[in-house]
Amino acid sequence: MTTTDEHVEAALQRYGHRADVLLQILVELQARVGWLPSALITRVAHALGLPRARVEGVAGFYSFLHLAPVGRYRVLFSDNIVDQMLGSRALMAQLCDTLWLSPGRVSEDGLVSVDTTSCTGMGDQGPAMLVNGQAIARLDPARVNEICELIRAQRPLDAWPAHYFAIDDNIRRRDALLGSAFVPGDALRAAIALGREGWLAQMQASNLRGRGGAGFTTAVKWQACRDAPGAQKVVVCNADEGEPGTFKDRVLLTRCAHQVIEGMTLAAWAVGAQQGLIYLRGEYCYLRASLEAVLAQRRRAGWLGAGIGGVAGFDFDVEIHLGAGAYVCGEESALLESLEGKRGTPRIRPPFPVTHGYLGRPTVVNNVETLAKCCLIAQHGGPAFAATGTAQSAGTKLLSISGDCARPGVYEYPFGVSIRQVLDDCGAREVQAVQVGGASGVTVAPYEFGRKIAFEDVPTAGAFMVFDATRDIFEVARNFVHFFAHESCGFCTPCRVGTALLRNTLDKLAKGNGSAADLTEIEDLDRLLKQTSHCGLGSSAPNPVIDGLQKFRPAYERHLRNRDFVPAFDLDGALARARQMTGRDDPGAHLDNATEAER
Amino acid sequence: MSTPHFLLDGLPVPFEEGQTILEAARAAGRYIPHLCWHPEFAPHGSCKLCVVKAAGRYVSSCAMPARAGWEVESDTPALNTRRRTLLQMLFVEGNHFCPACEKSGDCQLQALAYDLEMTTPRFTHFFPDRPVDASHPDVLLDFNRCIYCELCVRASRETDGKAVFALSQRGIHKKLVVNAESGRLADTDFAATDHAAHICPVGVILHKRVGFRTPIGARTYDAAPIRVVAMRTEADDD
Question: Measured between beta carbons, which residues in chain A are less than 8 angstroms from residue B60?
Fold first, then answer.
């Protein structure tokens, strides 16, 4: 039996006694020990010379780190609306019933715990789950039964059938990036031949804009980082693909890892960076081994390390950091905090990462897809890239298509494609709405299907969730609002409290206890979140509800108990405490709301 | 004009390069409401009470550097309505029972609520379960009133050199924790003489055996509203 101290020693040996790798050490210990007992937290704090409270604060921030015991088998069902539409909730109930436990609780014998988690990035092959952090997709009742048996038999995870863990790429449409054959080093060789200045000029000519959602011009970011004072510069690849409904980065990291890492190296060449970091979301930890293999291969080939491509002084290497279940870390300044081993709280800006980033160094943070696209620019030139797509949105965009359609998967289109075209291609019928850009994106109604995917029309980080006529758009928004309340970092008042209030109000509507006044209250909360939140999470949290109320108002009004009067409080809810104290939950202990209303 | 200036609610405010909107406004004798901002510490920007509209955008005035020529709105009905909503959020999120609170009359949250004419909690209370920590011989921690301004966290770390406090969890479940495996303040190196023991704007950090020494009615904000008090005593405010 390994003791706590031995586990801590092993983790420290792997990562070093550095405060900035605290999160990596905690992730490692979570995997080794199964949870993070309080003595272990003290031990880690002592070893790193950090205040214990700071270590506890970091451990408490991330969903995949547990300060209280969890089951030896931790089952987490992906709870995105698309997983739910594919039956995830019923499968979770089946698993719980079979194993005799309830969600969120640990079984009496400590064997298993079952809960939900935010979108795991498998919308094209859901319903999906994580078992002790490992992704399993394409769940159905039969597979859930098998999983119950494996857990009961206490079969170690590496002895489970390998095909459970197979993840499909589901590439359905290829264009400039996915359709081209790539020889590692080709793009870098071309960029080195251009010189650092010449290469940056090609990037400027390309008009490439960030694929992570915000659409900032990549060359401008690079130039600012290059010009920032400070000898040590950093390139970060944002592989924290947490936006519900998106999974195209998963496919790029699987299929095009060379392009992504070569893109980082191209960025390093332009800005003069020595250090590269990939922030890989915890849900994709299964990709770590293959990414490490690509890194090793590139080091051997001389495309990473000292004197890259034979250029003296071009030294650059890449290290992988794992996330641990925090959507907000996709925000670049929160991501940097997390890379430094802290709570993922977005920073005050200015200063911006390009001047004060990772450990205060000038840092470029780019999305996975943005970096991969840089290879195309190096190979074919900036003007050729700028000539594709639309005038304001050059190049192609990868879409992660899921929901009600015949062919979910990854589709690469030149920017400017219409939503109708995409819907036709993926085999969607009787479409009621499309959620473009994920939970924080835009709900597009049928009358808008002529709109185009482009920064200047419907911008997107990649998610494209289709909802047919049978779906309740109110329930879609309610799912997203729950997601934001769960993922709020809690730093600023409007987001911390506002997302929870919004969630509670939509829940009230869902129970049939809403009134017209609640809709007014929702609209007011929406405005406050938009105007006063500290970061994009809070300001985009109300998007699905704002769009819903504007374009699908009947879907909300259907849930109102009465459109005219304002119930002061929920009578039946007020009796909850009395029911709890008397241990009753039978129909006789509930007010009949229907009778109550008639009276 | 040689010194740069911006317009705050229509009146010019001069500023020096690097000064934030809130700092420049204060230096000019103009009050912008705030809870997490404190003159001794770097801007934090979490409470959002200092929200203003600068050049058409909503920003935290405590953190946003002033720019010449900006038109900044602060004391307007629209912005004060936003601030009132933020206060209501802070009130329903914790357990704030002003009449029974020892900090009543000295509490910045309460004082701001009076000043901004908050008359109802508006939202449904969360009623969180937050046990008090009375373990320390000289100081009591009543977490029910925490607004997560992190002033104690910052004062302990930056002034006292101790790191007694930190935040754990996230979202609506975020909580203040102390630097001890037991989770008890008595097991930390916290002292009643620490700067952190005198900086809480609400009623979380309370000194024992001095309760109600100053009668209600004769307390700080009983004599003058926060918009007046904040401008004169903040630097050495307890």
Answer: 348, 534
Residue A40 has pLDDT above 50, yes or no: yes
8 A C-beta contact, residue B52 and residue B73:
yes
**pLDDT confidence of A590, banded at 50, 70, 90?**
confident
Q: Which domains does chain A have, with CATH numbers?
A: 4-61 (1.10.10), 75-168 (3.40.30.10), 173-386 (3.40.50.11540), 397-473 (3.10.20.600), 480-562 (1.20.1440.230), 569-599 (no CATH)
Which residues contact residue A139 at a Cβ distance below 8 angstroms, ignoring those fewer than 6 apart? A88, A91, A126, A127, A128, A129
The yes-or-no verdict on residue A572 having pLDDT over 70 is yes
Between vectors from CA B138 to CA B203 and to CA B216, what angle results, nearest 5°? 40
Quick check: B171 and A54 CB within 8 A? no
First to last CA, chain B: 39
Q: If you write DSSP's letter for every residue of A401-440 in order, what string do you get? A: EEESSSS-EEEEEETT-BHHHHHHHHT--SEEEEEESSTT
Which among B82, B124, B206 is positioned nearest to A567, based on CA atoms?
B124
Q: B89-120: b or e for each residue (b if 16 or more CB lie within 10 Å)?
A: bbbbbbbbebeebbbbbbbbbbbbbebbebee
Annotation: CATH topology of B81-233: Alpha-Beta Plaits (3.30.70)
Mean of pLDDT over chain A: 95
Distance from CA of A347 to the nearest CA of B (A): 9
Dihedral in degrees, nearest 10, Cα atoms B179, B180, B184, B190: -50
Q: Which residues make up the CATH 3.10.20.740 domain(s) of chain B?
A: 5-75
Q: Which residues of A touch B (CB under 8 A)?
A: 38-39, 41-42, 51-54, 56-57, 59-61, 67, 326, 343, 348, 350, 485-494, 496-501, 504, 524, 528, 531-534
User: Across the interface, do A350 and B65 touch by the CB < 8 Å criterion?
Assistant: yes
Chain B residues touching A54 at Cβ < 8 A: 163, 166
Q: Look at residue A239 and tell me whether its pLDDT is greater than 60.
A: yes
pLDDT band at residue A209, thresholds of 50, 70 and 90? very high
Residue A214's pLDDT is: 84
Residue B233: the pLDDT is 59
Average pLDDT over residues A468-482: 97
Q: How far is CA A227 from the centre of its chain?
A: 31
Nearest by CB to residue B181, choosing from A39, A500, A534, is: A39
Residues in B closer than 8 angstroms to A488, CB to CB, are: 170-172
Strands (E), A28-125: 73-78, 112-117
Question: Does pLDDT of A567 surpass 50?
Answer: yes
* Phi, psi angle pair for A568, to nearest 5°: -65, -40
Q: Which residue has the higher pLDDT, A375 or A594?
A: A375
Query: Over 70: is that where the pLDDT of A146 sits?
Result: yes
Reading the block at residue B38, the tokens are 């404190």
Cβ neighbours of B43 in A, within 8 Å? 348
pTM over 0.90: yes
As a CATH number, domain B5-75 is 3.10.20.740
List where CATH 3.30.70.20 sits in chain B.
81-233
Cis peptide before A244 (omega within 30 of 0): no
Looking at residue A594, its pLDDT comes to: 42
- Nearest residue to B195 via CA among B220, B163, B218, B225: B163
Q: List, for chain B, all residue ranges whose pLDDT scores fall below the cut of 50.
A: 234-238
Please return the burial class of B129, using the count of CB atoms within 10 Å of its CB with bins 0-12, 13-18 and 19+: exposed
Residue among B89, B126, B177 whose CB faces A53 most closely = B177
Residue A596 — very low, low, confident or very high, per pLDDT cuts 50/70/90?
Answer: very low
pLDDT over 90 at A587, yes or no: no
Q: Is the ipTM of this complex over 0.85?
A: yes
